[in-house]
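Structure (tokenized):
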């Protein structure tokens, strides 16, 4: 299948950057947003007035506040926050989205209480639609500026995976495929928690040695969680695993790192989130992933420490000391 146009649900930083990325290949690109000022600004000024405000958008990108306009699009891309995936999907299903329309999830997280990945939520709502996932070390700010980026796409439908790979292959954007749907979704979700940890470490004044060690041990922990929840070990050595972990733990664009840094520097969780002004998925993800890891019986000392800082008011410096004072053990088990 070849896509000539598409609807992107969500006109935040991610949705806006994906629209700009796909504009050379699709005509039109439809951005669906619940924010009336965003819709007006994109259509009038060809700029998003709230997100990526310095990026000029091609004229074949059009915004709307009416999700019914997505119903006749040959591809629907979900670029909303993880907490909005289910309600947005249910709204679209209620409007009568055809069962043949392929769906692409670009959100990173798992749902609290159910422990479901984003593709599983979509499958709950859409029993028959083909579903794909796009993920990797993909900060919206750099995608929008056409800086070199790599991603990975997965789907149980091989033809859809190949079509999505073709769509998301441009001179500055290279896309790989994998069959491991669970693995790439879990990597994209779990790394957010460790970006908070890296930010906290920087915030309390830890040096490069400490943060490098923390992120390395976080990768080992990510593999334990990911494989326990259905992913393949090899996947976490790829773009959706170590690749996304690196960029999220060290990039200036990382919202989760910035929130963690603010907390490590002495701000409360509320102050840190309010100062960001955008969604940091690691904050709600810590709750859902901690819950899923406990149910699976996985040993997760770093995740437990982040959870304690965010939701049990433990100081970040104390959490770091406790991690260092744990009983010695082999590096590889």
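Design, position by position:
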């Amino acid at each position: 299948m070849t896509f000539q146009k598409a609807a992107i649900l969500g006109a935040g930083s991610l949705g806006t950057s994906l629209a700009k990325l796909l504009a050379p290949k699709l005509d039109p690109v439809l951005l669906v947003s619940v924010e009336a000022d965003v819709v007006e600004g994109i259509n009038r000024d060809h700029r998003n007035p709230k997100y990526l405000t310095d990026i000029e958008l091609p004229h074949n990108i059009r915004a709307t506040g009416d999700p019914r306009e997505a119903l006749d699009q040959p591809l629907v891309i979900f670029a909303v926050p993880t907490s909005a995936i289910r309600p947005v999907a249910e709204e679209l299903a209620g409007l009568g989205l055809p069962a043949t329309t392929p769906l692409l999830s670009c959100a990173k997280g798992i749902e609290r209480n159910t422990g479901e990945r984003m593709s599983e939520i979509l499958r709950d709502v859409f029993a028959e639609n083909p579903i794909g996932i796009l993920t990797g070390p993909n900060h919206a700010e750099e995608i929008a500026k056409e800086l070199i980026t790599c991603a990975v796409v997965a789907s149980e439908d091989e033809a859809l995976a190949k079509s999505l790979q073709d769509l998301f292959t441009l001179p500055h954007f290279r896309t790989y495929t994998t069959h491991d749907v669970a693995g790439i979704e879990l990597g994209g979700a779990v790394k957010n928690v460790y970006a908070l940890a890296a930010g906290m470490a920087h915030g309390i004044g830890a040096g490069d040695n400490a943060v490098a060690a923390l992120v390395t041990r976080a990768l080992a922990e990510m593999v334990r969680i990911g494989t326990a929840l259905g992913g393949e070990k090899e996947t976490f050595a790829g773009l959706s695993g170590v690749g996304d972990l690196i960029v999220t733990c060290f990039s200036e664009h990382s919202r989760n790192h910035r929130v963690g840094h603010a907390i490590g520097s002495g701000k409360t969780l509320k102050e840190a989130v309010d100062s960001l002004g955008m969604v940091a998925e690691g904050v709600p993800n810590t709750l859902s992933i901690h819950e899923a890891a406990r149910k699976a019986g996985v040993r997760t000392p770093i995740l437990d420490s982040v959870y304690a800082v965010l939701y049990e008011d433990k100081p970040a410096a104390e959490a770091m000391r406790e991690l260092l004072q744990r009983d010695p053990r082999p590096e590889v088990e």
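Reviewer-requested clarification: The CA atoms of residues 251 and 257 lie 8 Å apart. DSSP finds 14 helices and eight strands in the chain.
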